[in-house]
Each structure stands twice: as C-alpha cells, then as structure tokens.
Specification:
Blueprint lengths: L1 H19 L7 H12 L17 H4 L3 H9 L23 H12 L26 E10 L11 E6 L6 E9 L6 E9 L46 E3 L5 E3 L5 E5 L4 E8 L6 E11 L6 E9 L8 E2 L6 E2 L3 E5 L3 E9 L4 E9 L5 E7 L10 E7 L4 E8 L15 E2 L10 E9 L8 E3 L3
Helix pairs in contact: 2-5, 4-5
C-alpha cells in the first residue's frame, strides 16, 4: 500500500511539474543577436542601406514588433528566388527556426538577457561592404533638384586607374555619397585612349515626350554598352540597391585590369527635389598572385526596338521577347541578376544544354525593383549551352509601383520606362578573352 501511494504521489507531482515548467526565455543577447549578425547587419548598421542599426540591443529593441512582422511575412531579409529551383550560396532567406526565434523574442517583450551571453561583435569594414586595398576617388556629380521632366540622362565619366602594371582585382565596390538618388552606377575597365578627358561628365539628351518617356518613332532611349556588340554587356560591375559590391573571392577568381587602363563609369540618378553634389568612391581588393580563374561579368538583353518591345496599356502579364546567349566554350555560371523597372513582374533563367536537356536555374516569381538582388550559384555550362532569360511585366493599375498604366511602355533608361536585362557572371580559365565567351541570338 505504501509503495502504491508513493508511486501515485510521484506521478501526480511529475505531471504538475511538467505542465508548469516554463519554456526557456528567448533573449536578444543569447538568441537574437547571432541571427542578426549572420543575416541582417550587412545592411542594418551605420553607413549602409538600411535606415536602422541592429548592432546593439539599444538600437534594435524599438523595432522588435516590426522585425517580427517582416520576418514572419518573409519581407526581410529580401530574397525573391523560388525556393524549389536552383541552389544559391548567398541565400539570405531565414530558416524557420530563426523566424521563430525573432517572433518569440518580440512576443515575450523583447528582453535583453545577460550581455555576457552575446557573441563577439562582428568587425565590419568602416563604411564599406568590402575592406578595400585601394580606394580611387571618383567624380563629383551635380544632381539638380528639378530637371526638365525630372530626367537626368545617363552620364559617362572617365577616371584613371593609375595602374602601372597588369593588376588582378578580386572585388569591386562603388560607393555613392547619396544612395537615395542613385539608380545605378556601373563601371568597366577600358584601354587608355590618348584623347581621353578625365572627370568630365558626358551625356546625350534623348528624344522624349512631356512625361520624359521614349518616343516610339525615335527608337529606345537605352544606350547599349559593353563590348560593342548588341545584346551583350561585357566587363561591368555595378552598384544597385540590394547589391552594392561584386566579390569574386568566393569563386577563387579575379578580373584582369591591364596596365594603364581607365575606368569608364555609367551613372544614373533619380532626383528627389533636393540639389546634391555626389562624391563617388571606388574600392578595390587586389590579388597578391595571379589567379587560376578569371571572372567575367556578362549580360543579355531582350530586343529593344519598339516593334518588338512595347508593353500595351493595362496589360497585367505582358510577355517580353526572351534574352538569349550561347556559350562558345565551357564555363561555370556563378552569378545571376535580373534587371527590370517598376513594371517588372517575374524573370526566369534557363540553361538549354547541347544534349537537349533544359534546366531552370533561377526563377524569381515576384520581382521587386527596389531590391536589385544578385544570386550566386555554381552551374557547369558546357560549350554550346544556351542561356534563355524570360520575363513578364505588369502594366496594370493593380501594380502599385506602376507610374502610369494607361500608356504604352517602351525600352528606355528611366525608371518609368522599362528594361529587360539578364545579367550574369561566369568563371573561365585566366587566359580566356572575355569577348569570345558567348554570342547572342539574333532577333
């Protein structure tokens, strides 16, 4: 009897303890900060794109509820690739366990916990995403407050590298002083021309209507760049929102800049009603030894002529002509970056192999112009493989970003016009001439 009673009491006590034992408290120091260091602080720190800092408890605590909403809805960190397609080494999306951690922290009052539990602070480059070995001073560009039709045409500026010998660069970061008016900044390395004029902005005024848009009878306002061949862009590195640096070090590769080269910069500004002088800097990291592999920036465009690229008014799902390119040799495809403007809806990259197989390697079903993300992968494309890039556009009133659903939209440089560009990067042997890597499909 004694043993039976003791067992009953033991079981009852155990049940009560099990029912009332509190779950572990989720704290900032122990649980949340490691997630922020890995996934958020790249942007959420002083001097970077995000408007608030997540480096400390004090700076993060006011945003706890907003953080929960953003991660639960998967708005942050920004990542738009279809999770069922491809493999990406820079996947910024949070794991469900990390989402749950942030949500529980916010729901429990966002406690700090013991500061001794916090991991060591990450040492971030001061003012940079990379830690540059060399900083080159770029031009100072006057951005007017209220230009005609709110248009500042694309600007080209030449800058000397100062390189006296062939130099292999392993990463590039373009740093505008005023990102809020910067649509993009791209650069390429050109052979020196004896008549070059440095630091002088050059542009061409385009034929536009009263809204600043392209005139169909005058052709697209887009100025094709890169390599001198229509449809191909060679050797460019860019600053765009969400993709501020190009880093080839994870691919064990670099870009060759011949001695005496000049930097050709292409600048696109969107005025915000305040006159600014933008001082631009360029940061580079440099290889100590020549690499075995060469990184090459490329890209393919859809046709640009108005007869082929004209998005009808109020069309919610217009299909663009595809952008196509064929590889003339074996390459490793390591980077993809879809580019459209406010009406961009979705974009898909497909490899069509010489044996007839087709493989979708990137699908972005919900494109967001505010985040020009790059997707890093590793895909072998043998000689003869064709890359096909397909896209749709939403020119309807249901698109909240659409500046005017009641007009036909043509290919052009301004954000209220449209583009369809599939940027990508490949790695090849260091001796390969970048201009021989691919050809585009004639349209």
């Amino acid at each position: 009897m004694y043993k039976k009673c003791s067992l009953a009491v033991l079981l009852t006590t155990s049940a009560v303890v099990g029912a009332t034992a509190p779950s572990p408290t989720v704290t900032f120091s122990k649980d949340v900060l490691p997630v922020l260091q890995k996934n958020c602080q790249t942007c959420h720190r002083p001097g970077q794109a995000a408007p608030m800092s997540f480096l400390t408890y004090e700076s993060t605590r006011p945003w706890a509820k907003a953080m929960k909403e953003a991660v639960v809805l998967r708005k942050m960190p920004p990542w738009f690739a279809d999770r069922n397609v491809g493999h990406f080494i820079n996947d910024a999306s949070l794991k469900q366990a990390d989402i749950d951690t942030i949500a529980k922290w916010a729901d429990s009052g966002a406690p700090q916990g013991d500061p001794k539990d916090a991991p060591r602070p990450v040492t971030w480059p001061e003012g940079w995403s990379i830690q540059p070995d060399l900083v080159i001073s770029g031009p100072a560009i006057e951005v007017p407050a209220h230009p005609k039709n709110n248009v500042v045409e694309w600007i080209t500026v030449m800058i000397p590298t100062g390189f006296t010998k062939d130099t292999w660069i392993t990463s590039v970061e373009i740093k505008p002083e005023y990102p809020e008016v910067t649509h993009h900044m791209c650069l390429g390395f050109n052979p020196h021309a004896p008549d070059v004029t440095y630091f002088v902005p050059v542009w061409k005024d385009k034929a536009r209507d009263d809204e600043g848009a392209a005139l169909p009878d005058k052709g697209p306002t887009f100025t094709q760049g890169g390599g001198g061949r229509p449809g191909i862009r060679v050797g460019e590195d860019c600053y765009v929102p969400g993709n501020v640096a190009a880093d080839y070090r994870p691919m064990n590769a670099a870009k060759l800049v011949p001695a005496g080269s000049d930097i050709a910069m292409n600048l696109h500004y969107t005025p915000n009603g305040k006159a600014l002088t933008d001082h631009i800097k360029i940061g580079l990291t440099i290889a100590k030894e020549p690499p075995m592999r060469r990184y090459v920036s490329l890209g393919a465009s859809s046709p640009q002529a108005p007869k082929q690229f004209a998005i009808p008014p109020n069309d919610p799902n217009w299909t663009s002509p595809p952008a196509e390119a064929t590889f003339n040799q074996d390459v490793e495809l390591v980077f993809m970056e879809p580019h459209m403007h406010a009406r961009g809806k979705d974009m898909k990259y497909t490899l069509e192999y010489p044996d007839g197989r087709k493989e979708v390697i990137l699908n972005v079903p919900r494109y967001d112009f505010n985040w020009q993300l790059g997707y890093k992968t590793s895909a072998h494309a043998p000689k003869g493989t064709k890359l096909v890039v397909e896209a749709h556009f939403d020119n309807s009133a249901n698109n909240p970003a659409n500046p005017n659903p009641n007009r036909t939209v043509y290919y052009g440089e301004m954000t209220w016009e449209e583009m369809m560009l599939g940027f990508f990067g490949v790695v090849v042997d260091q001796n390969v001439d970048p201009k021989t890597i691919l050809t585009t499909q004639a349209h």
